[in-house]
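This section describes the prediction task in plain terms. A model, or a person checking by hand, is given the sequence of a single protein chain and must write out its three-dimensional structure as a string of tokens. No templates, partner chains or ligands are provided. The sample shown here is typical of the held-out split.
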Amino acid sequence: MTDIKKNRKTTIYDLAQLTGISASAVSAILNGSWKKRRISPGRAEQVMRIAEQQGYTVNRQASLLRSRKSGVIGMIVPKYDNRYFGAIVEKFEAMARARGLFPFVTCTSRDPDLELEAARNMLSWQVDWVIATGATQPDKITQLCVQAGVRSLNLDLPGTLAPSVISDNYAGAKALTSRILDNVMRHKGSALPLVFIGGRGSDYNTRERLRGFLDAHSDYRVAVPDACLLPCGYASEKAETALADFCSGPENQLNGLFVNSTISLEGVLRELSRNRTTAQPLPPLGCFDWDPFVTLLNRNIDMVKQDVPKMLEAAFTLIDMDNTTPEIVQIPPLHVKA
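The expected answer:
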């Protein structure tokens, strides 16, 4: 065996020459179908070892022409700035690679124009699937995918034109609100209205969490003033400002807080620490999100942890089945006590 000259890329025909078997047999070994050809494991291992030594790489364009599949799966994510989306990306990449797929991930900063641009770019690379995670306009992404003949799936935020896998936001928020109200009752002797802060009133998840928040209050026969509903966006600075404005109202009472993400929680804690000494307790507090560093605050904070492994398992079950039915799969979140 001699090395192929390195002034060009190694081809299947080069490997056939080096190994003494046909180019079609080399191709079968490299694409994993060698068992059907009754090629021995020893010969298959030899070819793969030589291919690696020669720096052989698959010609994706040629493979695509033959199989009509690229083996690439794309994911659009809104942010990298909290553990939830970071965990989604990490689990997505691991599960894609386990299936022999190459994961292609891009962040769009919750910008609807960037989301569509990212989808177009992924489609130009002929991905097999596009996973739209937390997208502001999931149906527009699906429409682009349909036009290109590519399948799509929504994760975290649902759409109406493709399958969606999301957390059970309503049930999770209602249970979290009930725990915070119970905490208020222990401290103040009766259930009193909480403040809901963070998230966008225009997105599905926030609307469902608000619905669970209000229904939990209704179960406790507690009315919630409109002034207590502060879906001010996810940025920590916006949450900080919204809470400061609320607390400046002479008639507003801060009995407890439902915080709609750890990003918003940063701003809430900055505002609360500004107006309290370390000896003063925080008001009863819950967060629909999770970060282990909250335990270092040494505070009594309830948290909802979205079940990322089960969400991704459900998503890849749909992908493995080639299921494009526009259904919503809801995964129960987990309760975590900080």
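For orientation: The CA atoms of residues 185 and 191 lie 5 Å apart.
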